[in-house]
Amino acid sequence: MIGGVVAAGLFGTATVYLGIYSYKNPDPSGCWVVQDLHSAWKNKSDAIARADAMDVDVTSGFPMEMHAVFLVWFLWGFWAKVSLLISIVTGFVARYFNEYAG
Question: What is the SS3 string spanning 27-86?
């Protein structure tokens, strides 16, 4: 019983935080990164300028806007948890009607 309550609490907490970071993200909307640099910048031109100043080659696919990457990850996680919750509830309802109503 305790394990189930703890698991449900962790599942609920993760779902809530994924929803918050998906739809009301408190982080800045711009977060540009360049491979091999350990800082982030608010716009693409600053990231490129810093890479040039540090003599770092900007590889293909960079600078990358990490805010968008994390937003997709949070959305995926949130909706995956919601769909799992819906399938669990649907399974319990189907089992109830199968055992007691049929």
Answer: CCCCCEECCCCCCCECCHHHHHHHHHHCCCCCCCCCCEEHHHHHHHHHHHHHHHHHHHHH
Written as one letter, the residue type at 55 is D
Can you give the pTM of this predicted structure? Answer: 0.76
Q: Where are the domains of the chain?
A: 2-101
Euclidean distance between the first and the last CA atom of the chain, given in angstroms as a whole number: 29
CA neighbor of 81 nearest in space, from 23, 27, 26, 8? 8
Instruction: Please give the structure tokens belonging to residue 88.
Output: 């669990």
pLDDT digits (tens, 9 = 90+) for 52-70: 888 888 888 888 998 889 9
